[in-house]
Amino acid sequence: MTDTFCLTVNGARHVLPHPEDRTLLDILRSELKLTGAKYGCGMAQCGACTVLVDGRPARACVLRASRAAGCEITTLEGLADAETGALSPVQQGFLECEGAQCGYCLNGMVMTATALLADNPSPSREEIRAALRHNLCRCGTHLEIIASVERAAELMRGGAS
């Protein structure tokens, strides 16, 4: 066993102490100070900890950090343009349509919607609902969340700001 391992997060390579059996969420929040992904349930049930691993949504609260080595990890912080700070279309859509109330679900909704729109730039409402079905929203802002994803899709297609 080596004393270190590497993670590529938001395009940057990080050499870190070997994680033993620590979760990716713990490494992201404690070691890298990336706090967009939240600890919610700790059982991969709520979606608050969602990150993208090689472009696919993954629950960082149960994913062992060592399993993510060699993968491209994207967190909420990695979605905005690093040079200009401009929000991603999904982040902008959520901002414009007020797709969050308490913020508990926001990270998971944004990350899952980002993956959805990468695969399907024009999803139907049913496809949006299906993609987000495993992300828990306690405030009940489901209509605003769906509108946010629809707005993000419009922005990605070059819709007016």
UniProtKB/TrEMBL annotation:
It holds the Pfam family Fer2. The keyword Metal-binding applies. Keywords: 2Fe-2S, Iron, Iron-sulfur, Metal-binding, Oxidoreductase. InterPro entries: 2Fe-2S-bd (IPR002888), 2Fe-2S-bd_dom_sf (IPR036884), 2Fe-2S_ferredoxin-like_sf (IPR036010), 2Fe-2S_ferredoxin-type (IPR001041), 2Fe2S_fd_BS (IPR006058), Beta-grasp_dom_sf (IPR012675), Diverse_Oxidoreductases (IPR051452). Residues 3-79 form the 2Fe-2S ferredoxin-type domain. Gene3D superfamilies: 3.10.20.30, [2Fe-2S]-binding domain. PANTHER family: BLR6218 PROTEIN, OXIDOREDUCTASE WITH IRON-SULFUR SUBUNIT. This is (2Fe-2S)-binding protein. The lineage of its organism: Bacteria, Pseudomonadati, Pseudomonadota, Alphaproteobacteria, Hyphomicrobiales.
